[in-house]
Amino acid sequence: MMTTGFISSLNLWNAPRTGVGRLQADLATATKEISTGRFADVGATLGGGVAGAFGLRGQSAVLAALTQSNTAASLRLNATQTALQEIQSAAEATLNELTALPADQRAAMAAESTRGRLAALAGTLNTSAGGQFVFGGTNSATAPLTPYEGIPASPAKTAVDGAFVSFFGFAPGDPAASGITPAEIKGFIDGMLTGQFTEVNWSGTWSEASSRTIDSRISLTETVSTSVSANAEPFRKLGMAYVIASGLGLAGLSQDAQAVAMGKVTDLLGEASRSLTTMRADLGRAQSQITEANARMAKQTALLTGQIRDLESVDPAEAKSRVDAITTQMQMSYGLTAQLRSLSLINFIS
After folding, report:
1. Closest CA to 157 of 250, 253, 243, 230
2. pLDDT tens per residue across span 92-115
């Protein structure tokens, strides 16, 4: 039995066009692979192997994040080291000045210089880097120290003056201070005044810093302390030394009482300077650990990058060949379509 079908010019015209959409998609895919150097659809190409590629990329992202956070930690450590050097230099300069002076001149000469260095101590401990106060501990958003001198009087000065009045019955600088004995000034300094510089009282009157320092994860397996708190003991000892020298009116005391007070000042300055040396050494070790961790992570990142490239990279020559082949097919399709559109019965009716 013979059957007949219908021949349609429209069907003939559309036949080449049905594959153009697929060819255009293939061309876009091949072009993207040439420009990026990796498969356009990694999941479709690798299949089950895509989990391994994603895992490698995840590890690489973690290393990149750690490297970036190490940059911030290094910035904080560098600023801290610079500030500590300034603080220690000031302490050592004060100590050298005092030891170079005759004992009967130390109290009068030290008052003015230590007043300025007490203000400088507060300013240096309020150092910021990257928008954070480096001596704030975990409370890095707030300036740690309030200047001792100022109007109105700072809580620290109010507390020290109140302790002096409570112990002696008159304010610092009062003419009655000339009658203070060496034993009395020693008792006050070792007792009530020292109590003002305990960590608890320092935090309540001098500092808004957190005593908890910042611990930074510098590699996949290492965590180090990368900050110093303004509540640390060396700063409290320096603050006490400067307050004794500048805030108790030592010039009005007897020579023997002055000698006792200034002896305490030099002791505190020496202890603080030694502690600052240890502190700077600890931070230096942290800086070295960060440098070494960054070097190791750079090698790990390079290895991961190579493994990712092996999994996801395309052969540029093969991708270029596909682009050329697809382009040729599309040109042939367009040419065939044009020829079919020129077919018409009208051309044969005359």
Report:
1. 243
2. 999 998 888 787 778 888 888 899
Task: Write the CB contacts of 135 (distance below 8 Å, at least 6 apart in sequence).
Answer: 80, 83, 125, 126, 127, 144, 209, 227, 228, 229, 230
Reported as a single tens digit per residue, the pLDDT across 221-249 is: 999 999 999 999 999 999 999 999 998 99
The SS3 assignment for 269 reads helix
Q: How far apart are CA 71 and CA 116, in angstroms?
A: 34
The 8-class DSSP code of residue 133 comes to E
CA 6, chain centre distance (Å): 77
Q: Domain 55-304 maps to which CATH number in 1.10.3720.10, 1.20.1510.10, 1.20.1330.10, 2.40.40.10?
A: 1.20.1330.10
Q: In whole angstroms, what is the distance from residue 20 CA to residue 333 CA?
A: 7
User: What's the pLDDT at 13?
Assistant: 52
Please count the other Cβ atoms lying within 10 Å of the Cβ belonging to residue 89: 12
More confident residue, 348 or 269: 269
